[in-house]
Write a structure and sequence with these properties.
Layout lengths: L8 E6 L14 H6 L9 H11 L16 E4 L5 E4 L9 E5 L45
Antiparallel strand pairs: 1-4, 2-3
Length: 142
């Protein structure tokens, strides 16, 4: 939703085991330093910032991500647990854009805990159009 309560994306289908997260912030250089990384490590925050900069948006506020296929739990004491997602190759979701928008996806580079089985893998994205001749605008007359 926008900050004016307009829908941006609609979650339409999920053929994965349905485990997703909206608690965990995008990984960033601070997260990797806290995990003991000395030096640079790829992160979802930097992937987003780099992509947006390439599109002409040099300074952005990094929003709360939708972590599809990420298994984060909360223990009784409020601590997070990091588990490997139960998804497999070919699992997927379908989201529909309700507004013109830029959607940036990052294949999570986390390789220091169980989230990605300690081995990040690529993610496939397919852009679909449901435009049909009935819903397409009428071309202008010559």
């Amino acid at each position: 939703m926008t900050n004016r309560r307009r829908p941006i994306l609609r979650f339409e289908a999920d053929d994965s085991p349905g485990v997703h997260d909206m608690l965990c912030a995008a990984c960033d250089p601070t997260r990797y330093r806290l995990l003991g990384v000395d030096g640079w490590h790829p992160s979802c925050q930097e992937n987003l910032q780099r992509t947006m900069a390439a599109l002409g948006h040099g300074t952005i506020e990094v929003p709360q991500p939708i972590n599809l296929f990420m298994a984060v739990g909360v223990q009784a004491d409020g601590a997070f647990t990091w588990s490997a997602a139960p998804t497999g190759a070919g699992d997927g979701v379908v989201v529909r854009a309700e507004l013109d928008c830029i959607v940036v996806a990052s294949a999570c580079p986390q390789d220091l805990n169980e989230i990605n089985h300690y081995r990040p893998t690529p993610i496939g994205i397919e852009l679909l159009s449901n435009a049909s001749p009935l819903s397409s605008p009428t071309p202008p007359s010559p």
